[in-house]
Structure of Membrane protein:
Amino acid sequence: MKILAKIFSEILHPLLMPFYGILMMFYYSYLYILPLQYKWLVLGGVLLFTCIIPALCILLLYKTGKIKTIGLNHREDRPIPYAICLISYICCGILLYRLLLPPWVLGFVGGGLLSVITAALINIQWKISAHMTGIGGVLGAAFALASMQHTFPIYLFIGLILATGILGTSRIGLGCHTFMQVITGTLNGFIWVFGCMTLCAGIPVV
């Protein structure tokens, strides 16, 4: 079971969540009409700034002994990686702004940025789940898309909710987080992303 938990933790790694979120928007919103080359440009930029660069920096920190584990399992290991992710999100947001993507897409990145800041602040005193913050953000994006379009594939909702539950169970099973850390992380990602996307789309949050 621990092997499966580790596999889910890697597939649903927080550094991959922005990529998954943008990919979801390209398939399940009016953005599907955009040219394929443009989509690849956006996805490549998102993957570079929010996954590849932070991952390489974390690996460098581990190799130089600045952090104890590459999985950032200790609260003390997280401040510098959080700062790196913060800068990466800002760069990603600038890229998407220059590529003229709609405001609600920028809201997705902005919500992710705010969730990272919140997690970093909470991390000063208490360990919060970055994995659950990431998938909570994608779940929030799905709800925001449904609010904007008044339609969204039910199978994707079910899949995201199941994935959230499986990931949370995996993180607890691996001994990385407590139940409350998992719940808090999920709410952190969900609230910020859903709120920012709906605000940028001009939809009242009720």
Remarks:
- The helical segments are 2-11, 17-27, 36-63, 79-98, 103-123, 130-149, 154-173, 179-200.
